[in-house]
Design goal:
- By secondary structure, this protein is α/β, with parallel strands linked by helices.
- The chain has 2 domains: about 1-15 and about 70-140 and about 235-350, Vaccinia Virus protein VP39 (Rossmann fold), CATH 3.40.50; about 145-230, Adenine-specific Methyltransferase, domain 2, CATH 1.10.1020.10.
- Helices cover about 35% and strands about 10% of the residues.
- The protein has 14 helices and 7 strands.
- β4, α13 (about 285-295) and β5 (about 300-305) form a beta-alpha-beta unit.
């Protein structure tokens, strides 16, 4: 077992910068004092409601955020959409520990912060979330029908013939009916990611997405985001990306690995709030992942919340563990500690 190191938290992390550059708006939630997710399981955000209701689109802060990350050697892309558990704020810990490699693999791709910000090799990525990977396929293909539907959305959004909250709820209803074409599913998914309250993705016990409209985004214009999705930088990045939608083990079993391969592993965390989609990532799945990693023939980096269960799961093996502090912006009804520790576990000695 490698040496563990407890590090002091940064004076200002990425999310602190986001808060500083966020533009405050006067809108308030209409009848949604607390966004109760009616799934029979709770789901009330335990956050400072005033600050969260006033939190606006962070796109205008990109220049400041870019300056904040300049000390690192990043590519010229950023994640294409919001996703729970994104790793942008942890790149300061992750990027310096990425080894040289010829092929990159990521079985739990999510928002893809590590790939979009730091990886320039051929990449093979996977996620079990169907609509998420449909969205990436549309961007990789530069699907003209997808972008035409986005333009139609912008036109309806700007006309305001009905309130923007009503537009959001109509899209949410259509998404939950699950009867649309793949292009419409990708479109609805993207719109919900951009305008859902606090950027959350949450489904109820029936698998229905039920996050309310984010009133702080009522004046948000996503045209710049759409232009970015069609940019040369994104197209070049997506051309190197091979996309899969499967269970992580089925995905990985398609390949033969060697020492020139690197895999970044960011699974749903070992806490009670891991249901970002229709399926949970259970303790049994954590065990399956551990069993796979300890026999992996390439190099891997696992980033996960550092719990007693995770410690006991990986401690018996000859791995290198680096521990750092992580502060979450949200606490879903007290289901996890906002002040947590993350473990970065590798089967190689990081060159740092």
């Amino acid at each position: 077992m490698g040496k563990r190191q407890i590090v002091e938290p940064l004076n200002m992390d990425f999310e602190d910068v986001v808060e500083r550059v966020a533009k405050h708006t006067p809108e308030r939630y209409e009848g949604e004092v607390e966004p109760v997710l009616n799934d029979g399981e709770g789901g009330v955000l335990d956050v400072n409601q005033k600050n969260q209701r006033e939190r606006a689109d962070i796109d205008e802060g990109k220049e400041i955020i870019s300056n904040f990350t300049k000390p690192l050697t990043f590519s010229k892309c950023c994640p294409l959409l919001k996703w729970p558990g994104g790793k942008t704020s942890e790149l300061q810990e992750i990027q310096p520990r990425i080894p040289k490699h010829k092929r990159y693999f990521e079985p739990f791709f999510g928002g893809g912060a590590v790939y979009f910000n730091t990886i320039n090799t051929q990449a093979f990525v996977n996620d079990s979330h169907c609509e998420l990977m449909l969205f990436y396929k549309m961007i990789k293909k530069q699907d003209t029908d997808f972008f035409a539907l986005l333009n139609d959305f912008i036109e309806v959004w700007n006309k305001r013939s009905i309130t923007r909250k009503e537009i959001y709820l109509q899209i949410r209803d259509r998404y939950n009916q699950n009867q649309s074409s793949d292009i419409e599913k990708a479109l609805d998914f993207f719109i919900l990611r951009e305008y859902a309250y606090a950027g959350m993705f949450r489904v109820n016990s029936s698998g229905k997405f039920n996050v309310p409209f984010g009133a702080a985004y009522v004046n948000k214009n996503i045209q710049k985001k759409i232009d970015y999705l069609k940019s040369d930088a994104v197209i070049a990045k997506m051309n190197k990306l091979n996309i899969s939608n499967n269970d992580f083990k089925y995905f990985l079993n398609e390949f033969s690995f060697n020492e020139n391969d690197f895999m970044f592993v960011d699974p749903p965390y070992n806490c009670s709030f891991t249901k970002y989609g229709e399926e949970d990532f259970s303790l049994k799945d954590q065990d399956r992942l551990r069993d796979y990693l300890i026999s992996f023939k390439g190099k891997f980096m696992l980033v996960t919340q550092y719990t007693d269960y995770i410690r006991k799961l990986y401690e018996p093996y000859n791995l290198y563990t680096y521990i750092y502090d992580k502060k979450y912006r949200f606490n879903i009804k007290g289901r996890f500690n906002r002040n947590a520790k993350h473990a970065l576990i590798t089967n190689y000695v990081p060159n740092i």
